Amino acid sequence: MTRPPGPPDLPAPQIRKRVRSLASSIRKNYLNRPLTIVALLKGSVFFVVDLLRHLPIDTEVEFWNVSSYQGTQSTGKIRGLHHCRGNFRGRDVLLIDDILDSGLTLDRTRAHAKKLGARSVQICVLLSKKRKRVRPVRARWVGFVIKDEFVVGYGLDLDQRYRALPSIRTLPSTP
Question: Is residue 87 within a helix (H) or strand (E), and if so which, with residue range?
Fold first, then answer.
């Protein structure tokens, strides 16, 4: 059994302020160009909803339910990608994910979006872990860089728990 998460590492007001800043930069980058956001579920749900509130109202949104984690460990396999569809021919696509960790999920979903005809594919993540990546993935927009620790809250979970916390917290490892 894991211990409950500790005190907030990233409080809700700090997250909200950073999300507004990211949205401003994204708006400027895609000025007068149609944008399709692909949100990777379930972890990015809070982040993408808050981000969308600050983007143009004609931004298109797709939701892809993909996962590579079981508990606190990556399985090394992406589940659900074969169900992910979308007509991206000639469109700019922005992948939104909660966290850039190993890079495996974002590498595979980026390749899939290109296969579906995307003109360009950029990445925006709320969190980027300081660690060696399994795949060479770089996010164009990063909310916060964090230590290589397991975090929960603001959409991030441990086996579906702690997702609704308004802040991001480190999950202490069991002794």
Answer: none
Quick: pLDDT tens for 80-138.
666 667 778 989 999 999 999 989 899 999 999 999 999 999 999 999 999 888 888 99
Catalytic residue among 50, 97, 98, 101: 101
Catalytic-residue membership of 58:
no
Distance CA 165, CA 11 (A): 10
C-alpha distances (whole Å) from 170 to each of 19, 104, 131, 151, 167 are 20, 22, 16, 4, 10
CATH T-level assignment (fold) for domain 10-68+78-148: Rossmann fold (3.40.50)
The residue extents of the domains of the chain are 10-68+78-148
Per-residue model confidence as pLDDT tens digits over 3-22: 667 777 999 999 999 999 99
